[in-house]
Amino acid sequence: VQLQASGGGLVQTGGSLRLSCAASGLTFGAYDMGWYRQAPGKQRELVARITYGGGTNYADTVKGRFTISRDNAKNTVYLQMNSLKPEDTAVYYCAAGRRPSYWGQGTLVTVSS
């Protein structure tokens, strides 16, 4: 199983980024998919999750600003991030499965003030 995350970068406060995670080696449509993040000195935390059926849930800190979506035809999950804040700075990881079972390599998002 491979989860390839991309789309991170440097953005100013208030800006937007879209992260993508391309999955291979698994039956993508059967998995819940999630985005997690880990900021320096902090524990990894769940940002957003989308179930195999399309249901979503978000961390309180990103509700109304971030949107998770999936394209099962492309085996890809997305995270649209708007109104970014410096506290969103972190390495963002995609993951497959509810526990989760598989992790991607991470992509760095830096929000400058």
Summed up, what is this model?
The protein is an all-beta fold. It contains no helices and 11 strands.
Structure description:
With 113 residues, the chain is mostly beta strands. It has no helices and eleven strands. It has strands at residues 2-6, 9-12, 17-24, 33-38, 45-50, 56-58, 66-71, 76-81, 90-96, 102-103, 107-112. Strands 2, 4, 5, 6, 9, 10 and 11 form a seven-stranded mixed beta sheet that branches. Strands 1-3-8-7 form a four-stranded antiparallel beta sheet, with no helix packed on it. A hairpin with a 6-residue loop joins strand 4 and strand 5. The model has no long low-confidence stretch (mean pLDDT 97).
Task: Report the structural category.
Answer: mainly beta
Helices, by number, come to 0
Assembly state here?
A: single chain
The tally of strands reads: 11
Shape: globular
Main sheet attributes: strand count, strand direction, barrel closure: 7 strands, mixed
Low-confidence stretches: none
Fraction of helical residues: under 10%
Return the string of H and E elements.
EEEEEEEEEEE
State the distance separating the first and last CA atoms: 37 Å
Q: Which whole number gives the mean pLDDT? A: 97
Q: If you compute it from the alpha carbons, what radius of gyration comes out, rounded to the nearest whole angstrom? A: 13 Å
